[in-house]
Design brief:
CATH superfamily of the largest domain: FAD/NAD(P)-binding domain
Structural class: alpha/beta
Strand content: 15-25%
CATH topology of the largest domain: FAD/NAD(P)-binding domain
Helix content: 25-40%
Number of domains: 2
Oligomer: single chain
Bound molecules: flavin-adenine dinucleotide
Number of helices: 15
CATH class of the largest domain: Alpha Beta
């Protein structure tokens, strides 16, 4: 083998790539991270930065009993059976050590969220920056990368893999600013996320997501998945994605799903309920996509105020005028443009179901704080695609699997790899699955690649 330039090349400077580089340097290897965009962060910066850690010491301090087995059981309940169930166990097992390593070894500020349970989880177990903004997570990871002498090169789009005798031995970078050059390495970690920004790949692999507006980072264009398919890898859980049923329009920020978990409902342009909202924000996105617009999330001012007190992004939406208030049903009909009689019938039926006086026509049984009470609050909402979850099959070290075992020299993380959200489009996604498969596989890949 010719001389190498660096031990581990990482493609993509989001959470997965930065974690992979830190894990590799912790194990004594040198690492370079290549990012095609002008700044690092990718989808990780756009996220709320919430990472599951099942059995973490902060859970123990808060008296929350949890374990990798419990996390795996929760994730599989939400996803249903799928193509990568071994990966669920692998990632559930690494989840708490991942969060503790980030905090203890690299001073990443992550705190256990105890004020609500996330979609798909039976106990509070997500850990997030205090601001609940992914930017803060990325800033901490970049600081740690700098301290570990990891070079992060922006404006550096990787164009293809260097493959010799069936082994991946580096990458070719080709960009307007970087020019074209080859970087040779012992291992390449593909942390380039999925194909949410690539319509053609969505049509091919995740057709349920095609009608949703893509609100993730621009860099998720799927080329890393293509390179691996060309090398003989195969897709698993290809259809899966994280959707969001209620992006505030026109503000573009998310309408916290806590408003719905506390008892809110979603109505269509005429004022009719759309379905059982308790399937979660991701699973509900296709239903919103098929509904008569404009769709609104309806809750009450009590819910509004309590969510705004806990969630900065929702407080920002409120301050920006994205949450309308209505004293009664007639005013709510005006605010939303819905038919007043239809809306009154909808609210009556929802109230009766939430009070336990009648069964819900859509089968919803969880109503949070119970029936909504006037004054009401409403947010106009559109459905969106945040990221794709399916990708290529990997083993327990994040090595990419070809037709006869791991393809030497190449690892996949996050949206490049098979995710843990099943095969049911947006319905199998549990909160935190995106960052768990990104950061968890990043840690495993970086460690193994260094070895
Ligand atoms: C609004 C929103 C909220 C979310 N909230 C959460 C949450 O709280 N918890 C959770 O688990 N998930 C959440 N997600 C999903 C989560 O953001 C992603 O699953 C996760 O960030 C993926 O991390 P990553 O490092 O794999 O990818 P990214 O962070 O997207 O990083 C990949 C990087 O690779 C770069 N890249 C791509 N191709 C190339 C190339 N050829 N050459 C060089 N660079 C390349 C991209 O530009 C990008 O910067 C959310 C997503 C959104 C949009």
């Amino acid at each position: 083998m010719q001389d190498i330039d660096v031990d581990v090349v990482v493609v993509g400077a989001g959470g997965a790539g930065l974690v992979a580089a830190l894990a590799a340097t912790d194990a004594g290897a040198s690492a370079v991270v290549l990012e095609k965009e002008e700044r690092p962060g990718g989808n990780t910066a756009a996220s709320t930065g919430s990472v599951p850690g099942a059995g973490s010491r902060w859970q123990a301090e808060a008296g929350i009993e949890d374990s990798p087995e419990r996390l795996a059981a929760d994730l599989l309940r939400q996803s249903g059976p799928h193509d990568a169930e071994d990966l669920v166990t692998t990632l559930a097992t690494v989840s708490a050590p991942l969060v503790e390593w980030l905090v203890d070894k690299h001073s990443v500020d992550l705190r256990l969220i105890t004020d609500y349970k996330h979609v798909g989880h039976s106990v509070p177990r997500l850990h997030a920056p205090p601001s609940r903004k992914g930017h803060a997570l990325v800033a901490d990871l970049l600081r740690a990368a700098k301290a570990a002498d990891v070079e992060v090169l922006t404006h550096s789009p990787v164009d293809r893999l260097v493959v010799e005798d069936g082994q991946v031995r580096g990458v070719v970078v080709s960009g307007d600013r970087s020019g074209t050059y080859t970087l040779r390495s012992r291992a390449v970690v593909l942390a380039a996320n999925g194909f949410g920004a690539n319509r053609e790949m969505l049509r091919q692999f995740a057709p349920q997501a095609v009608g949703l507006e893509y609100l993730g980072a621009h860099g998720s264009t799927g080329e890393a998945v293509r390179w691996l398919l060309d090398l003989g890898a195969s897709m698993a859980n290809a259809e899966a994605f994280q959707g969001y049923a209620a992006v505030a329009s026109p503000h573009g920020s998310i309408t916290s799903w806590t408003t719905v978990e506390h008892g809110g409902i979603l109505i269509d342009g005429r004022g009719r309920r759309i379905g059982d909202e308790s399937v979660g924000y991701s699973g509900f996105a296709p239903a919103v996509s098929g509904a008569e617009p404009p769709v609104h999330v309806i809750f009450d001012t009590g819910i509004r105020d309590s969510v705004a007190a806990h969630e900065e992004e929702f407080a920002d939406l409120l301050a920006a005028g994205g949450v309308k208030e209505a004293a009664d049903v007639a005013e709510l009909a005006q605010v939303t443009g819905a038919d007043a009689d239809e809306l009154a019938r909808t609210l009556d039926a929802a109230r009766a179901a939430a009070a336990g006086e009648a069964s819900d026509v859509f089968g919803r049984t969880e109503w949070g704080r119970g029936p909504l009470k006037p004054p009401y609050a409403a947010v106009r909402a559109i459905p969106a695609l945040f990221h794709t979850q399916g990708g290529v099959r990997v083993d327990e070290h994040a090595r990419v699997l070809g037709q006869s075992g791991p393809i030497p020299g190449v690892y996949a993380t996050g949206g490049v790899a098979a995710g843990i959200s099943g095969r049911a489009g947006g319905a199998g996604y549990s909160s935190g699955n995106g960052l768990l498969s990104a950061l968890g596989l990043g840690l495993l890949a970086g460690r193994h690649a260094a070895g």
